[in-house]
Amino acid sequence: MKIDSHQHFWRYSATDYPWIGAGMERLARDYLPADLEPPAAAAGIGGTVAVQARQTLEETRWLLELADRHPLIRGVVGWVDLRSPAVADQLAAFVAREKFVGVRHVVQDEPDPQFLLGEEFIRGLKQLRPFGLTYDLLLTPQQLPAAVELVASLPEQPFVLDHLAKPRVATWTQAVDRDSWRRDMEALANHKNVCCKLSGLVTEAAWRQWRRADFTPYLDVALAAFGPERLMFGSDWPVCLLSGDYAEVAGVVQDSVAQLSAAEQEAIWGGAATRFYGLDTKE
User: Fold this and answer.
1) CB atoms within 10 A of CB 183
2) Dihedral sign for Cα atoms in the order 147, 236, 254, 47
3) What pLDDT band is residue 24 in, cutting at 50, 70 and 90?
4) Residue among 51, 276, 82 at smallest CA distance from 163
5) Which domains does the chain have, with CATH numbers?
């Protein structure tokens, strides 16, 4: 089964989604499973992982309720307050729900590049493994060194890097601009408890002005560093709609993996996500 390892749902309000600003009006509406099902089906996607977009327990509960009603949603990556003394209680309440597979914090918005290494945050992360939960790393390139240190300190915890740490596709015009990012990606990939999502690149490029070749240097680095068995397709729908529709986003990955064997392509299109998140892919 083909899996989209990274997409979002929301009921829009300006108060709840302040990051949807000027020029992003396409996102300023509700996006629900009925909106995703047609383009996902057209791309051959049989299941998705819904990922948090707000840092509230309420949203996590809502995503799990959506997952109960919509078979397309095979897993939910929610939010809990990893810095709270009550994090274990929050996790226990959610882990009883079959489709709760992991946790994410919007680290990219934290001003401290060492945020991931904070004592309270690491204490919370250490609660995930006993519950059998994964952690999604949402980072900027400047935060990659801290991520490398973090994953080395928690070798039993499964991590996945979202969006290749958001390389600056639109502004990095020379190979030298990518060198530091590439070295950090390779260092992260050296830790076998880390996977990577092929997602989020179209919105780091010039919106709706990109060419598929623009992404080749970044996808090649990810493939060489992680290998197909630790890479997974993610659409980042509906955020991707700012720069490309679902079929175009899937097409970027399809082109980049076309030279791989059938087994390697299967890993990227579903096998890696299914294993990492422990998804139930029975029809």
Assistant:
1) 14
2) positive
3) very high
4) 51
5) 2-277 (3.20.20.140)
